[in-house]
């Protein structure tokens, strides 16, 4: 019973609490804040490309996608790849997170936002602190209140649900010949020649023709005809 309860807990920290949580809290998941992890990591491995590679590996949700992201990081800098391999993926990558917690948070922004919200009541006695939190939460609920939908609406919305499927990024990596795209056959006939137009060319209509309009002169035209001119 205790193991089932603890398996649904997750500690998200940026401090050196890995041995402490491992020795005192069994069956509890321990994660590292990726933002703070990258803050220490970029001191040794700076660069925008390495940052994108690290966050791509951290945000990956499947094992094949995580493997490809780590291979890309290894191509950029093998030393950085070795340092990230020293950390177990279940501490910083979504691909290895436990499904019991039902939480995919990778940064402790929630804790920072909570500390910022209770900043007004933190230095007060315990009774005043609890009353202040109660006042804050009730006002928050009222401000964020929205009209509730009926149960039938939720059922109708999810009635014709199309289950998502993995794309090429989620395919397993196998040692086989890569599948090439089909050969594009050339259509019969002479191909079109696209003329490069400059900026000072006249505007064209939907059919590729120049726009024109018929105008009539106010002066007396001895011939009595109208002229058709091209707009610039």
UniProtKB/TrEMBL annotation:
<protein>
    <submittedName>
        <fullName>Uncharacterized protein</fullName>
    </submittedName>
</protein>
<feature type="region of interest" description="Disordered">
    <location>
        <begin position="185"/>
        <end position="232"/>
    </location>
</feature>
<feature type="compositionally biased region" description="Basic residues">
    <location>
        <begin position="187"/>
        <end position="196"/>
    </location>
</feature>
């Amino acid at each position: 019973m205790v193991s089932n309860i603890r398996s649904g807990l997750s500690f998200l920290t940026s401090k050196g609490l890995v041995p402490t949580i491992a020795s005192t809290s069994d069956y509890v998941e321990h994660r590292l804040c990726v933002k703070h992890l990258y803050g220490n990591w970029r001191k040794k491995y700076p660069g925008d490309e390495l940052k994108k590679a690290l966050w791509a590996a951290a945000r990956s949700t499947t094992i094949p996608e995580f493997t490809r992201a780590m291979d890309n990081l290894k191509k950029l800098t093998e030393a950085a790849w070795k340092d990230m391999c020293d950390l177990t993926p279940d501490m910083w990558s979504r691909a290895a997170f436990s499904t019991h917690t039902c939480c995919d948070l990778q940064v402790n922004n929630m804790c920072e936002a909570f500390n910022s919200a209770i900043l007004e009541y933190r230095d007060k006695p315990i009774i005043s602190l609890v009353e202040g939190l109660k006042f804050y939460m009730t006002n928050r609920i009222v401000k964020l209140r929205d009209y509730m939908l009926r149960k039938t609406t939720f059922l109708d919305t999810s009635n014709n649900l199309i289950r998502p499927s993995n794309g090429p990024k989620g395919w397993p990596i196998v040692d086989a010949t890569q599948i090439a795209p089909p050969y594009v056959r050339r259509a019969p006939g002479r191909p079109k020649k696209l003329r490069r137009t400059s900026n000072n060319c006249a505007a064209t209509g939907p059919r590729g023709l120049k726009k024109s309009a018929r105008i009539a002169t106010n002066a007396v035209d001895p011939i009595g005809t109208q002229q058709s001119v091209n707009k610039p």
